[in-house]
Design a protein that fits this description.
Blueprint: E1 7-10, E2 14-18, E3 24-29, E4 32-35, E5 40-43, H1 47-64, E6 71-74, E7 79-83, E8 86-87, E9 90-97, H2 101-106, E10 113-123, E11 132-133, H3 135-140, H4 146-168, E12 172-186, E13 189-195, E14 203-207, H5 217-220, H6 226-236, E15 246-250, E16 258-261
Antiparallel strand pairs: 1-2, 2-3, 3-7, 4-5, 6-7, 8-12, 9-10, 9-12, 10-11, 12-13, 12-14, 15-16
């Protein structure tokens, strides 16, 4: 049992608590579903469990290719032990296929495959609606240095290359996704590492053949069956059922999760 200290931060989908050692935290994945800057919200039982497992799987694989991130280990079905970082107030959006706000802003036909991945920056501020910004804003207001921004861009392209291949291998298109980064202080050394989560909450994922949406757009657009979609992603990634003696994970309804153990 890992000791969990006081609450440090609560966001729309996660809570961060003090960890058992200095510089560590416990990240708890909630079942809250939100969209449109928290204007639409609901509780979907089991979502936090799936996001925890999917994000763990992806972050562990990214670590193996040299992408440092805040994950230390998964503690239980809903929580991870993480390194505490100073979050850089940017959301990095990577787009491989045009959809969502990009098509609305620029009139690009939905589903247009981009010749090269497109990176967009948003200022991470819920009160302002996470507005789209340019590199010049980031440097002018000192949200990140030029060197930090270069490291973020380099890591982002590597993450995209890896994830496009990983998802393509299981019959899924990685349409777009959001990343966050933070500054990790270890002694006199400070470095920028990947933080937050990577899950169907933060990615748009379409089936290669049917283009069925397997992500949070099922909630945004009232398509239903969000849990089943997230479960399908987990199953294709072969996350369930091997770990921790779980032999079957079955979702009977969008709002229920049943876990059978040996």
């Amino acid at each position: 049992m890992i000791h969990k200290g006081k609450k440090l931060y609560e966001g729309k989908a996660k809570i961060i608590y003090e960890g058992p050692e200095k510089g560590t935290g416990v990240q708890h994945f909630k079942d809250d579903a939100t969209a449109f800057n928290n204007l639409k919200k609901s509780q979907i039982e089991g979502k936090g469990v799936l996001n925890n497992r999917i994000s763990e799987h992806i972050l562990k694989n990214l670590n193996q290719i040299g992408i440092k991130n805040h994950l230390i280990k998964r503690i239980n079905m809903r929580e991870q032990l993480i390194k505490l970082v100073e979050i850089i107030p940017l959301e990095i959006i990577v787009r491989n296929i045009a959809t969502g706000s990009l098509t609305k802003r620029l009139g690009i036909p939905d589903g247009t495959v981009l010749d090269h991945p497109l990176i967009e920056y948003c200022y991470k501020n819920d009160d302002l609606g996470d507005p789209l910004i340019a590199k010049e804003h980031i440097l002018a207001f000192k949200w990140a240095t030029l060197d930090e921004l270069k490291k973020i861009n380099d890591m982002t392209f590597r993450i995209n290359d890896f994830m496009v291949g990983m998802f393509r291998g299981i019959g899924i298109k990685l349409v777009d996704f959001k990343l966050e980064f933070g500054r990790l202080q270890e002694g006199d050394k400070q470095e920028v590492i990947l933080a937050d989560e990577i899950s169907p909450d933060t990615c748009r994922l379409w089936d290669v053949v049917s283009e069925k949406k397997l992500d949070k757009d099922r909630f945004r657009k009232d398509l239903g069956n969000l849990i089943e979609a997230y479960q399908e992603v987990a199953n294709r990634l072969k996350i369930f059922p091997e770990q921790h003696n779980i032999t079957e994970v079955k979702f009977n309804k969008p709002t229920s999760i049943k876990i059978k153990k040996k």
